[in-house]
Amino acid sequence: MTELEVVDLVIGEGKEAVKGALITTQYRGFLQDGTQFDSSYDRGQAFQCVIGTGRVIKGWDQGLMGMKVGGKRKLFVPAHLAYGERQVGAHIKPNSDLTFEIELLEVLTRD
């Protein structure tokens, strides 16, 4: 996998994710073999981040742009847009392609 693949599972109708927005999501992350390595649902806490500014992996920065609140998206993230050659935790090996299922709950912008 060399390119980011974005699949809309549900098209949202709320505010759109734009560069610099603070977004609130629920997500699950999977390895290529289908093993779940992370889930905000399991932690019982939504995940917040600023999008489009390098605070999260490039696959998220690129893959969540234009997504609207209420939407659900699946991102197939090649290793170079994820963690690259770094080992992350016990499960994510170097050069791992990752898949995320992401639900966009809120978008906050400075307007």
UniProtKB/TrEMBL annotation:
<dbReference type="InterPro" id="IPR046357">
    <property type="entry name" value="PPIase_dom_sf"/>
</dbReference>
<dbReference type="InterPro" id="IPR001179">
    <property type="entry name" value="PPIase_FKBP_dom"/>
</dbReference>
<comment type="similarity">
    <text>Belongs to the FKBP-type PPIase family.</text>
</comment>
<dbReference type="InterPro" id="IPR044609">
    <property type="entry name" value="FKBP2/11"/>
</dbReference>
<dbReference type="GO" id="GO:0016853">
    <property type="term" value="F:isomerase activity"/>
</dbReference>
<protein>
    <recommendedName>
        <fullName>Peptidyl-prolyl cis-trans isomerase</fullName>
        <ecNumber>5.2.1.8</ecNumber>
    </recommendedName>
</protein>
<feature type="domain" description="PPIase FKBP-type">
    <location>
        <begin position="20"/>
        <end position="108"/>
    </location>
</feature>
<dbReference type="Pfam" id="PF00254">
    <property type="entry name" value="FKBP_C"/>
</dbReference>
<keyword id="KW-0413">Isomerase</keyword>
<keyword id="KW-0697">Rotamase</keyword>
